[in-house]
Amino acid sequence: MKRQLREPILALGKYEILEAIGSGGMATVYRARLSGPMGFEKPVAVKILQDEAAADEEIVRMFVDEARLGARLSHPNIAGILEFGEADGRYFLAMEYVDGMSLSVLVRQGQKGKKRKAVPPAAAVHVASSILKALSYAQTLDGPDGKPMGIVHRDVSPQNILLDRSGSVKLCDFGIATGSWRTDKTRTGIVKGKAGYMSPEQATGGRVDLRSDLYSVGLTTIAMLDGLAPFEGKDTSEVREKAAKGLHAERLDSLACDVGLKETLRKASASRPADRYSSADEFLKALSEAAPDPAETGRAALVELMGAAVVRTSGGRGSSKKAAPAKPVKRPATTRVTVEAASATGIRNILIGAGVLVLIALALALFKVGLPQ
User: Fold this and answer.
1) What are the backbone angles phi and psi of residue 156, rounded to the nearest 5°?
2) Would you say residue 281 has pLDDT above 50?
3) Percentage of residues in the chain with pLDDT exceeding 70?
4) For residue 83, which of 94, 141, 163, 242 is within the disulfide window of CB 3.0 to 4.6 Å?
């Protein structure tokens, strides 16, 4: 169905902000439009730092690092960064717009009601394989000095996996990624990322490497296959405490898939990093052997599943009927001053006009009195 055109909320530089499609602790993502001569238009996603975050120097450095890293990442399974900029006192990232939904929409829908709805194995393997290709590229990417950047995403989860209408899969949000390229290293003991998809070493604030990301891919795949969150709890602390202990082996036994796929995921989700796959390519090879997909049935299954999902807005990051509303854009102070000034000018002009009319009326009255009878 064709999307109804919207009037822009705000013009941010050359981008027209149309609607909020996702919000996190540091930034809000908006669907936007880039317009040009002769009717040129391009949909984009614009990520804007929230006011509180923009006042934090560490968060701003992380945002800049994300932009620097995004400028180097170019892969079909990674949502690309188009531009980093500042307008009206706001830092923003212009990103590739993915017209579809996030994987979290499908996983979350699978958790609703008494009867869970899991993602079919073919579709789950297609998603996992696409993310592994993205990680393989990122983990072997060289920096400007020709040395490996050692990129670890640290936040691989359904919320950061985007699905477009054609069945393509893209990993996004390298905002807390770490590696040799980052200007500010995360101190040991500081935990960043979504607790429910963390490796045990990440959940305890230990040192992480690429095997932590592979563990998160394993958990994400398991969540797709059984329709349950990897770890549940009443708050983040309880979830992180469970994540630190690792996934119970019995969880994999109940998966509705072939034994080969179960064993592949068992190795990927091993509690000890040494027991996991040593690279994304090794994990990807094992996955393709366990669930070969010569006719791309996985992509077709994913497209069918997305079409059946009940989604209110098919935004770049996706949203369900009960998605929490994102924080609105606050117009810059300069805009408010201009509006207030314009209002004051209008009132002044009205008062002056009224005064002139009164003077004219008085003059006519005096002139009439002075005329001969």
Assistant:
1) -70, 115
2) yes
3) 74
4) 94
